[in-house]
Amino acid sequence: MRAAMVSSLDGPDAVEVVDVPEPTAGEGQVLVDVQTVGIAWPDLLLSKGEYQVRPELPFALGVDAAGTVREASGEYAAGDRVAVVQSHGSGCEVLAAPSEAVFPLPDEVSFEQAAGIGMNYLTAHFALAVRGSLAEGETVLVTGAAGGLGTALLQVAKGLGARTVGLVSTAEKAEVARTAGADATVVLEELDGRLKDAVVQAAGGPVDIVADVVGGQLFTDYLRCLGEEGRLLVLGFTGGSIPEVKVNRLLLNNVDVRGVGWGAYAMSRRGYMRWQWDALVPMMRAGTVDPPLGPVRPVEEIGAALVEMAERKVLGKTVLRF
């Protein structure tokens, strides 16, 4: 079978699709014939040895996958449509995955869509519903709102009854955010004044939550966008730099900065990801969860896809097909 393998930590150019032996299902595993694989930011970091999870070389990339069950016991039967979410290793043509990492796929969701849901939408649910304590009717500002995680945050926030504002760098990305469900957008290249003023105007007032995927030098400006008892959720640093904050700013409006580390939390709690998945299924069936996808590419183009992600050229979710 083919697999997207990392044999050296030299980045996207060193990722190779090679033939490896097919796995067999062990105790508590589900054997899946994989149709599609979703590429996420951790795949890029894993290829360079910069992620908090550091598998022993060589290893397969791939967090999200979708396909059909070949062999299983218990809940699943041969032919069932499923999604798979793992810290890595899903980028294989045949996959032996732990049963707790396998989720039933509603008929309304295609394999391409399913490969775009997994990690991003479970992270978004954890961020907003759990760490952010989002209440219906609140307003959420999402940074990096045209990327895979950004669009997931917009859609899950909508599914939880929030108003959403997408912060993006360009007009092209603003269109992606609006298509994903943003009620309003703020475009950094079009700003004529302070970010706070633009956000407050777009949101109709200060926001309750900032879901920050980007990090970087605007972090203090994000804090200024929050209303009283607002929450700034730290999800990542795709902008390349890790910001610092003077904690006296947290006193001004009684605001919080909360870390969102979904992977280590969810994957160490048996049944937790399934609880999250079941919470998202009604949103999938309603069409609220509908990941914006770029062109679906052959798996052999994984290296080029990771380079585009590193250069922040990706709009929506990158999906590869076996």
Query: How many strands appear in the DSSP assignment?
Result: 16
What's the average pLDDT? Answer: 94
CATH top level assignment of the largest domain:
Alpha Beta
Structural class based on helices, strands and sheet pairing: alpha/beta
Oligomer: single chain
Q: Whole-number radius of gyration?
A: 19 Å
H/E topology pattern: EEEHEEEEEHHEHEHEHEHEHEHHEHE
Domain Enoyl reductase (ER): 7-320
GO molecular function, one term: oxidoreductase activity
Pfam families: ADH_N, ADH_zinc_N
InterPro entries: ADH-like_C, ADH-like_N, ER, GroES-like_sf, NAD(P)-bd_dom_sf, Quin_OxRdtase/zeta-crystal_CS, SDR_fam, Zn-ADH-like_protein
Can you characterise this structure?
With 322 residues, the chain is of the alpha/beta class. It folds into two domains: 144 residues, Quinone Oxidoreductase, Chain A, domain 1, CATH 3.90.180.10; 144 residues, NAD(P)-binding Rossmann-like Domain (Rossmann fold, 3-Layer(aba) Sandwich), CATH 3.40.50. It has eleven helices and 16 strands. The strands form three sheets. Strands 3, 5, 6, 7, 8, 15 and 16 form a seven-stranded mixed β-sheet that branches. The model has no long low-confidence stretch (mean pLDDT 94). It comes from Marmoricola endophyticus. This is NADPH:quinone oxidoreductase.
